[in-house]
Amino acid sequence: CHVQRSLANPVARLQQRVEHELPRSNKDETEGCCEFEVRLTMCTKKKPRCADKLEETKRVERERHEAHKEILAHEKHMQKEKEKEELHEAKMKRMMHGHGKRREKELKELHEKEVRKQHDRHE
Question: What gap in Å lies between CA 38 and CA 46, rounded to an integer?
Fold first, then answer.
């Protein structure tokens, strides 16, 4: 876990306020927590105000996380739309390419007929 930039100022102030009051033990209950969480955990036992601050921090983190998930979902959706569009364009190009070839062949045959007609007239 790491503290986000948006929280940095109030969090830093809280950390400074909390720092000098904390015992450095209580290892088991703080196992697997980041330093910030450890400090808050120890602090909340002494001061309800810190508990409120911890809740606020968690709430902000949750909201950030939700917003981030929405952004990711939106980006994923846009990426899929883009891929669909690209596939469609590629398909259209292939189709047009096919038509182009067929048209070319028709024109060539038409041209050869004209040439033959003219050739026949000359004889």
Answer: 13
Two structure tokens written together for 108: 């060539």
Report the alpha-carbon distance of residue 48 to residue 91 in Å, rounded. Answer: 64
- The model's pTM is 0.33
Res. 79: pLDDT tops 90: yes
Question: Distance between CA atoms of 55 and 49, rounded to whole angstroms?
Answer: 10
**Rounded distance between C-alpha atoms, residue 56 and residue 62, angstroms:** 10
Torsion on CA atoms 3, 38, 34, 9, rounded to nearest 10: 10
Rounded distance between C-alpha atoms, residue 120 and residue 91, angstroms: 43
